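Dock potassium ion; give full complex structure.
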Amino acid sequence: MRTSYTADQIRGAEQALMATLPEGTLMQRAAHGLAAVCAGMLGRVYGSRVLLLVGSGDNGGDALYAGALLARRGARVSAVLAGARTHEAGLAAFLLAGGRVAPDVGAADLVVDGLVGIGGTGALREPYAGLVERAGGPVVAVDVPSGVDASTGQVAGAAVRAQVTVTMGALKSGLLVDPGASRAGHVELVDIGLGPYLPDPDLAALTDPDVAALLPSPGAESDKYRRGVVGIAAGSHAYTGAAVLAVGGALRAGAGMVRYAGPSAPVAQVRTHWPEAVITELDRPSLAGVGRVQAWVLGPGLGTDDWAHELAAQVLASDVPVLIDADALSLVARDHSLLFRSAPVVLTPHAGELSRLLRVARERIEASRLEFVRRAASELNATVLLKGSTTVIAEADRPVRVNLTGSSWLATGGTGDVLSGVAGALLAGGLSGYDAASCAAYLHGLAGTLAADGAPLVSADVATAIPEAMRSLRRARG
Ligand SMILES: NC(=O)C1=CN([C@@H]2O[C@H](COP(=O)(O)OP(=O)(O)OC[C@H]3O[C@@H](n4cnc5c(N)ncnc54)[C@H](OP(=O)(O)O)[C@@H]3O)[C@@H](O)[C@H]2O)[C@@H](O)CC1
Ligand SMILES: [K+]
């Protein structure tokens, strides 16, 4: 499990640790870690040109001490002092090591962004914003890319786009969530001894062994019912493919059995593609005769007419967990009373769907994914998986989970339907909504990477690659 923290949480831990150590120790640890990463990026330190962008706080101090270490190894290091004041001891060490102060940015083999760290607030002010825009060359950001909110990943104006971010003590949440995450590049963590002082994390991200340990696997006693029966209420005369893809996702993710219920057109398609599914053709929106399931997937391609509303109401009146996706999210956005139930609900919106559910502009959601996924989980009393450039999963009183797998090739029609089916299989297999949603996002991202392998994919390929993704996790676990 990887964990991350807000700026305030980091500050609290740093203060507690600092109280046990001689003054300046932490900054020295930070600077040594930073200089080592810079040296690695430069390859040959001697004779290389390094430019430090130095702000008024301790983030600038880290950069100056690291610059001093590089200067002592023969780098030509210059520093633009951008703040109204500069870390005094850091500047003295830098000048003593042969560093020089420059009036403005110039050509460099490496730029070190020490403008602001966890003390930054709001959009970068001048002269910082201009420096960020003028500086050329590969950038290593100190602690967080300047202009990215360390706690939320929000970017309010100009912001550094780093190749590498060297972060001190623990990950900051803004490095895991877009738009901040895509500004951070590769993140290197420098251990400064903060571990014992950190509180419960703000965010958590599952890794291969976590997901391998959570996934249900059949034992000697298993049969199709014990492994979990998933019901899929999806598809319509207009949209048949969504039903095929959701059923495929559920089957490939290891459902003991999939029961599909829908009208004749998608039934014909599902029957052709998935002889494994047990099918009920519906001539009216009723679940009578569909049989017992352990979880429902509701919504892909369902439509939003009265027929769809009635079927959704019946599914949601059941006493098993329900995953609500796509058209069913629109139905719920129009009629929140559909969500009044005691069994678990998992919602899987993208930003546009969440904007309808919360009645908040889509742009605001995209700029502030953490805030709105948390709000949705608490207001709608559900597990909420917000899809997008960073997929995040929220449930009341739990750390938000951030999904770290995925490929840009997954941004294609139908992949969400596969994700619903995968999550439905995991719910039926007994995972909680929180674990089912997080593991489904992880497997789906991994399967997307395997299926794409650097080239376009279609959504059916993602379902096909789910077993390979599971095998790769289990191999990693040994
Ligand atoms: N504490 C520790 O133990 C350790 C800390 N460490 C390091 O210290 C960093 C935190 O240092 P910090 O607290 O001095 O804050 P920091 O981010 O450097 O700058 C804050 C100043 O920036 C300014 N400013 C703010 N927003 C702005 C904006 N939008 N646009 C322009 N300017 C803006 C504002 O200054 P003002 O403008 O008011 O003069 C504010 O006072 C941390 O990230 C890590 O790198 C490590 O060495 C490990 C040990
Ligand atoms: K920085």
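Observed: The chain has two domains: 2-202, 208-477.
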